Amino acid sequence: MKELLKENASMKEMIDGLWLLPRDIVSEGYDVALLALSEQIPMTIHEYQTGTECFTWIIPEKWTCHEAYLETVDGNRLFSYSDNPLHVVSYSLPFEGIVTREELLKHLYSHPKLPDAIPFQFKYYDKDWGLCCSQQLKDSLTDDKYKVTIKTTFEAGNLKVGEVVIPGGSDESIVICAHLCHPAQVNDDLTGVVVGLEVMRNLLQQPNLRYTYRFLMVPETIGSVAYLSHNEALIPKMKGGLFLESMGREFPFALQSSFDATSEIDLCFSQAVKESGPDNWTAPFWGVICNDERQFNAPGIRVPMLSLSRVLHRSHSDGPYREYHSSDDIPDLVSHQSLEESKDLVLKMIDTLENNWLPVNKFKGEIFCSRYGIQFDFARDFSNSMSLFNIMFQLDGEKSLVEIAEICNTPFDTVKKTVDEFHKHNLVELRPCSNV
Amino acid sequence: MKELLKENASMKEMIDGLWLLPRDIVSEGYDVALLALSEQIPMTIHEYQTGTECFTWIIPEKWTCHEAYLETVDGNRLFSYSDNPLHVVSYSLPFEGIVTREELLKHLYSHPKLPDAIPFQFKYYDKDWGLCCSQQLKDSLTDDKYKVTIKTTFEAGNLKVGEVVIPGGSDESIVICAHLCHPAQVNDDLTGVVVGLEVMRNLLQQPNLRYTYRFLMVPETIGSVAYLSHNEALIPKMKGGLFLESMGREFPFALQSSFDATSEIDLCFSQAVKESGPDNWTAPFWGVICNDERQFNAPGIRVPMLSLSRVLHRSHSDGPYREYHSSDDIPDLVSHQSLEESKDLVLKMIDTLENNWLPVNKFKGEIFCSRYGIQFDFARDFSNSMSLFNIMFQLDGEKSLVEIAEICNTPFDTVKKTVDEFHKHNLVELRPCSNV
Amino acid sequence: MKELLKENASMKEMIDGLWLLPRDIVSEGYDVALLALSEQIPMTIHEYQTGTECFTWIIPEKWTCHEAYLETVDGNRLFSYSDNPLHVVSYSLPFEGIVTREELLKHLYSHPKLPDAIPFQFKYYDKDWGLCCSQQLKDSLTDDKYKVTIKTTFEAGNLKVGEVVIPGGSDESIVICAHLCHPAQVNDDLTGVVVGLEVMRNLLQQPNLRYTYRFLMVPETIGSVAYLSHNEALIPKMKGGLFLESMGREFPFALQSSFDATSEIDLCFSQAVKESGPDNWTAPFWGVICNDERQFNAPGIRVPMLSLSRVLHRSHSDGPYREYHSSDDIPDLVSHQSLEESKDLVLKMIDTLENNWLPVNKFKGEIFCSRYGIQFDFARDFSNSMSLFNIMFQLDGEKSLVEIAEICNTPFDTVKKTVDEFHKHNLVELRPCSNV
User: CB of C124 within 8 Å of any CB in chain B?
Assistant: First the structure.
């Protein structure tokens, strides 16, 4: 096999190398992409056989489209799968025959908003055949009959999940997740995959991680269900997680809370996002966009997984973004800078979580700060002095650093630096936030 | 005794047959009315003897007004108890004699707002004599002296409470209550009595009731106190209750919360009332009108009893309704349709309570809906799909159906149907809301 | 020693006798003032030696200013400590020498807002020398050099805390606190000292106090730390406290909550302040002014101490008051009437706390009020009747009287009188609010 990616490829290079692959949920294209990524960072590839029961789900068959095209009755080819894998509905049944224009239109999908683009359509569990083309092409179909050729096969195969694990001091783990499926598309969600991978490369350089990190690359939904149902023992140790979606655009960051917005990871991640830009915004669970975080947050699992994305608000006429689920979701939309910003923010979110402790006072009364060289000038710098004292007053083992930052309306780093100063002088003890 | 009511009388027929009776709290008129009702539906009549201690209360004597009238000194009769029982204050002492106009006016009551109507006045525990007439008649009294005749007797008797019991699967009971007293008045609260009775007739046709239902017909306040103090063992098993007041007008429904507005019965009843009409309204405990629900909610009892009525808001100049506590509260005010609507709403409230369970997931992750034929089309019907998933996500044994309806801002029936569908496929378990 | 104060001096007389003393935190002036007060009311004087460790603090040396003045190089004296003790920075190092104008200005403090006043400056732990004068005088300094003379000494001594204790039925104590330091100033906080002392004189006349009362006169901050660190066993028995600051002005009262604004003492004191005048206001912890309540509320102590003061809001350009920390804070600012009002309010606050109980019903259902001669006329006096019933309904041992006053939006005294009436008839039991 030709090498798709050079060694230690950049995020942009990984996108360029993999995006056009027909990465259907259980497919050759998906497998090729995952294999290429496994050469970029050490990972385990979990395989789940077609037909395996996964909670209430069943692993589907591997699907292959050998060829698919629409022709006029006299053999004039109008479009073909070989031009763009989006021309056939993902998991379409095979079909060959001449159909009336009316029948064709029941099986031919176009994009409701983008007249030039091919839409992304899937029928994983519906068992039907279908083609996709631009609205313009569809409008030009005036013949009475057309010839449809869809040569697809369904066969036993293996759904694959890539997992990168970086062990930390604790076996409590943080799950980063992105989905590698969706043929010939970039933002959704190859950008999430490459940002997650780059974050893991970075964490590999950090020697003393507090938590264990798991990065999962999955086919959407069924991949998460397959992984979770085969790793139930890990679930109670999953402290929380983050799904990454559409990381390459220049929109402000949108953070979607987990089902339990009061979890420690929710508090830490939202504090980091809030501090990282005045235009960043947060929304409740399901308030931004839905992906695999659904499975992690669902009943019986309840791992608080948030979702970070750079998309427009759902109420925006172009939301989540204009090219979503179409052949226009291409590498040109994605900038190196946006990917870097995304990676940096994820690292900052992780950093906040890693540094969140429950400080407990060993002192009584206010601390005699000048004795310890902790400087402040109450008269001249009222605000900073108040901040120091505000923080000091909360240190009784009931609130973690991030909660103190919230209560005192003070940046997390200021809280951390202040508490570190007290810690240096043995004035506080730092405990894990087990009961936050 | 002549039959007051024909067999299986309608709500309107019961009102027409009973309303004019002098239904004072312990009186012949009250007893006659209750006896007539006991022929409409099987009931137990509890009797409590005059002088019996009931919590801090004492059962009063039976009161009878033999005749009562006001005359000019020369014997011209101005009004008489025989014209309308409201002409004498309920529980007035007997009095006969010629009094000055000034003295008379201290004992003569008229209605503050309705110049033509006789007011309803009572002096159960004040021990005084009194008459009532219209403001117009009162204004025409210009003589120096008048002759008063009030022939009343107080004697040992029995306060009576009618109780209809329909046993359900559980001995936890729901108490429906209305007061049968108030001479010659209709909305307050004979309408509550007949709607309650009709509801019980309907429940008798329902074979598998979950809860036991008790319908109490009482003289206001003292009747409830008498019943509760003699049935203390039942109190812990009273899950909640509903007082019915002024059920015959065409005003929107007003639901008054119990003292503990977070009780399961409060949640169920308010959900049903909210869903039954955009003009219906709810108010806190004591925020609409006060009746026997006070005794059930009081300290030491704390049965969450709500109150349903069709009245104007307390802030309205005619509130609760213009004819309240007067001789104008007559059958003409009450429509068959209003009574039917009231009965239907009470049944819907009960239905919500009967169907409120605590669903607990037996599934993990999201349910693979298409496997079970649970249909939805995420792309085409975003709202219903979200509703399905919103409900699914709450099914972890922490919230009852009515709480899920509230959280998801979805009708109770939609929640119930969705959960029933899951239940049919053994995906959830339904538990009683013991800890709601 | 000449008697500074006559026997049984009034609040105003105590102020006049003591205000001008150089009451630095550990100083002869402070000691003289405390000794004079100890002849006004029986008190214990606690002494803490220089160098003693008190939590994280260390008792400072006794500081004495023998003389201090600024002169022109040719000996023209510009101002002197003997004119006003504020002319030298409290705890200034000694210094004698000719300095350049530039060097002098680094050590010469004036008031930012009051051009005629000498500011109050202190450098307890900074170890520097300094003088203070009016802005006008400072502006007139145009010579190149000036002669500075500051003759101060630092020596081992004793920090002193005065404590008046009035034992009550319980060993749970309420701490009243004010600071006696601050040379030649009145409102801050000699007014707090004299009001606290007068309150204690008054409490001494009350025979059956429920709680034990401790009145502490301290040098600010370090005095409280010294006392608390030497009386740790008392801390768990301190139910709460009140700091008194700036009690002599005619501003409305400002009540600053403790760190735990839900404490019983917070509820009682804020109810009393709210009821005492429509212009009185409350603010969260640290929202008005900061004094020794900081040490009591701090981590490891957590005694809920509120602060009462008569100051302008922090947002006011003159806040807390125009003459604050200056030589203008003199007896003329303080009226006899204001001090009396302050004392009366503190007594009312204490009275509310003393009378706050947890009432528990011994009755069931509503009380048959007329049986007990508890009068009300529902028809004529709807508001008072509702208030009676509102209160009655809350009496189930879950809310204290002050909480009922808050819930029912009724004055504390009305709640107390109603509950006392029920108590008289053995209808309720009164328990301590141990778990409030």
Answer: no
